[in-house]
Amino acid sequence: MTLQTESIVELPDGTSYRQPVGLFISGEFTTAQGQLSLDTVNPYTGTIICSVARGRSDDIDAAVSAAQSASKGWKDTPPRQRGQLLQTLAQLMRRDADLLAKIEAVDAGKPVHIAKEADVLAAAACVQYYAGWADKIKGDTLETDPKTLNLTVREPVGVCGLIIPWNFPILMVGWKMAPALASGNTVVLKPAELTPLSALYVGKLVQEAGFPPGVVNIVTGFGAEAGAALVAHPGVNKISFTGSTPVGKGILSASADSSLKRITLELGGKSPSVIFNDADLDEVVEWVNGGIFYNMGQNCCAGSRIYVQEDVYEAFLEKFIRRVEKNVMGDPFHEKTFLGPQISAAQHAKIMGMIENARTQGAVLAKGGESPHGWFIEPTVFRDVRQDMDIMREEVFGPVVAVASFKDASDALAKVHDTCYGLAAAVFTSDLKQGLGMAKSIKAGTIWVNCYNMITHELPFGGCRESGVGKDLGEDVLSEFTNTKSIRIML
Ligand code: NAI
Ligand code: MG
């Protein structure tokens, strides 16, 4: 069988485009050395869109070599020139935003209009933001005594392995690749096997923008093959990973067993929303509805636990259920659709199993709970959920929320912290003191007050405890992608 490096993909709106399907190594698309491929599926129809290269350890070796060869040249490229190339890439992503949104819609089941704004244009904006950082990364001078001059310099870590998930495919390319490149690293990117298409398309744009060969390499393939090989490779200096907590833990120990890489892990969560009785409930239901059902609940910071102060518990539930009923579920290519299908048969089955288990354990189903067809799952609300029930404790990664009441702030805090995670949390109140007090007390990486999911690339994002290690975004991520060197000069 002769494998291709490009496929003509027909889109549901009747248009078609040329999709790169090879591995992107040293600036060229090639087939996998084992001549293997993997199919990627449209979650709305369950049908195969096309096949992409199935990279394995020999392909990772080739990509890491390419990244190592390009490393010195890229590190020595004047920072403002690196910034200029990223700026060009951001422009090309914007130019092709309509097509990239359709690619995300077919490959990930995301509603196309949401994918354009929240995924593609947000990714382009993130690339542009780090284009601006490229020539602003700086060290320090420090006074110690009259006989020495002391400097710190910030140097790129080297070759970075970027392993990204299927829930925000192109957005995660922007989040991880842009700061890595801006700070002078070369990268090997491993997209999720369920959604490889937008990252490969970005590879084509990287080529068009004129990045030197080997600065960006993309190896599609399975986690246990390409992903594990990247983590184990001694030539890789850093891994930045977003995905499940068990795989993240495995990456940490695999890194320790190989060459002790620097590691950033952005993992799972069970993020709570705390609603006090003085909150504006009409506004609250908008935020918490988006908080859990955005991206079909497939969101690491999904607001999957809702705690409501006793006095307004019933009033909240009534308004919330009415709001949930208005969510439009259906074809990702329809303008009004808010909820598409879940990503895969396996995720669908896992989530339906968790819904079933919640009912068995006695959680009260207040809305949804069924799968109408295909990989769709109704927005599902369980009420009166006890802290010891699985649905209050385990990450569902689907459109399912657990609601319970609380007495006062200290009861709310006890419930909020009764988890192994610490990614995000939200507080709703019209009392600023209450809001700020909770924001200071809650142990999590991000706290939203009177809003939800308000992620922006200027602010660092990442959790504590089993939600991960290190940060994406903001200025903070630049220290994840650089090493500080101290220099003392005797005068
Ligand atoms: P996963 O953690 O297996 O996949 C994420 C990425 O890691 C993919 O690119 C995958 O190929 C790669 N990977 C898998 N095993 C690897 C290994 N041994 N070494 C290196 N890379 C590896 O997540 P999966 O299986 O797709 O989803 C399962 C659950 O994970 C979901 O139900 C959800 O709870 C959680 N998840 C969380 C995400 C987040 O944003 N925090 C994103 C995706 C999944
Ligand atoms: Mg797919």
UniProtKB/TrEMBL annotation:
Enzyme Commission designation: 1.2.1.3
Domain of life: Eukaryota
Keywords of the record: Oxidoreductase
Gene Ontology BP, a term: acetate biosynthetic process
Record's keyword annotation contains Nucleotide-binding: no
InterPro entries: Ald_DH/histidinol_DH (IPR016161), Ald_DH_C (IPR016163), Ald_DH_CS_CYS (IPR016160), Ald_DH_CS_GLU (IPR029510), Ald_DH_N (IPR016162), Aldehyde_DH_dom (IPR015590)
Single GO MF annotation: aldehyde dehydrogenase (NAD+) activity
Residues covered by the Aldehyde dehydrogenase domain: 33-487
PROSITE patterns: ALDEHYDE_DEHYDR_CYS, ALDEHYDE_DEHYDR_GLU
Residues annotated as catalytic: 266
Catalysed reaction, written as an equation: an aldehyde + NAD(+) + H2O = a carboxylate + NADH + 2 H(+)
PANTHER family referenced in this protein's UniProt entry, alphabetically: ALDEHYDE DEHYDROGENASE-RELATED
Name used for this protein in its record: aldehyde dehydrogenase (NAD(+))
Species of provenance: Pestalotiopsis fici (strain W106-1 / CGMCC3.15140)
